[in-house]
Design brief:
By secondary structure, this protein is an alpha/beta fold. The protein is built from 13 helices and seven strands. α2 packs across α3 and α7 crosses α8.
């Protein structure tokens, strides 16, 4: 067979294969449009992934913890110190406290979270999460990822009781994590504290760990709610003595009674936490001895301020709680 005949045979064979392939393909391989969902079938509800359902477990893995520790110690803490110029008091009251604990503080500014986190001693700081509003910090995926990584925040429902939020906080406490909780649920709109919610007291009772009251002053002068301008201003972070729910047995000196029915309830314990923070606030505006005498007599000024007209409430604000 000549070379010309051989080339002709190859060409005829390739044409035969091409025609057979084209004849066997009657429809396109890929659909041109998305298929319609049958009207007779109900569409399944997509699983939520934001809000209280956002998974923050990746932020507590070892690589994330190492990266966050470096971020907090080398960037966030120096920046907070420059802007807030903090004075930290009461660290000696944490000397004999073992983890985990619940830190409960008043809330006036977004700066409260990094300032309090950076004020914690090393044994607490790098194993502490922050309960944050699920509807504010976890409404968008990028936002949720940034804040949960940078500050270790976890989503908490602030408008109603949510079992998922409570279960996550309880699980982390049992794993040895400390939690920072702002029981007001949101930043103060006028400088006075809002009504405390009972989440911190509930968790303390459920897990059996102490609460450390914390008072933060001056942050509203730096960045108040609804403000976009940042101002430098001296701040103060004061840690109180750890407190635990009391029992009738402890108060009568008859020894410890076991049983939840004999333990101080969450409502009363939450009020006592608020009173302890009010004591710290009073000591910041006067002195510890005078504040302690008022605390013992039940005349400590309320964190919520006077129940009067807005102008009078604004006038009676201490300078550190006013907005710039």
């Amino acid at each position: 067979m000549t070379s010309h005949s051989r080339l002709k045979s190859i060409f005829q064979f390739s044409n035969l294969i091409e025609r057979s392939l084209l004849s066997s393909r009657s429809e396109p391989v890929l659909p041109w449009r998305k298929p319609n969902w049958p009207s007779s079938l109900a569409k399944p509800t997509p699983k939520p992934t934001l809000g209280v359902y956002y998974d923050t477990s990746w932020t507590r893995t070892k690589p994330s913890r190492i990266a966050r520790a470096a971020l907090v110690d080398w960037l966030i803490k120096p920046l907070s110190s420059f802007v807030a110029m903090p004075t930290v008091e009461g660290l000696d009251r944490l000397g004999n406290v073992s983890t985990p604990v619940i830190f409960v503080a008043n809330h006036s500014s977004h700066l409260d979270t990094p300032l309090l986190l950076c004020s914690l001693p090393q044994q607490f700081r790098h194993k502490t999460v922050v309960a944050a509003a699920a509807d504010y910090f976890f409404d968008k995926r990028f936002k949720a990822a940034v804040w949960s990584f940078a500050l270790g925040i976890i989503p908490m429902e602030r408008t109603k009781v949510n079992r998922r939020s409570a279960a996550l906080a309880e699980e982390l406490l049992r794993q040895g994590w400390n939690i920072i909780i702002f029981p007001e649920g949101t930043r103060s709109p006028d400088g006075w504290a809002q009504r405390f919610k009972g989440g911190a007291a509930y968790l303390s009772l459920k897990v059996g760990i102490p609460v450390v009251p914390v008072y933060i002053s001056g942050t509203r002068r730096i960045l108040a709610k609804d403000s976009t301008k940042l101002h430098r201003y001296p701040t103060k972070v004061v840690f109180g003595h750890p407190i635990v729910p009391t029992t009738p047995a402890l108060s009568s000196g008859a020894g410890n009674l076991k049983g939840k029915k004999d333990t101080e309830d969450a409502v009363h314990f939450e009020k006592r936490i608020e009173q302890e923070i009010a004591l710290l606030a009073d000591a910041c505006t006067s002195n510890w001895w005078e504040a302690l005498k008022r605390h013992k007599s039940g005349t400590t000024p309320s964190l919520g301020g006077p129940k009067t007209s807005p102008w009078r409430r604004s006038w009676e604000l201490p300078p550190s709680s006013r907005s710039s």
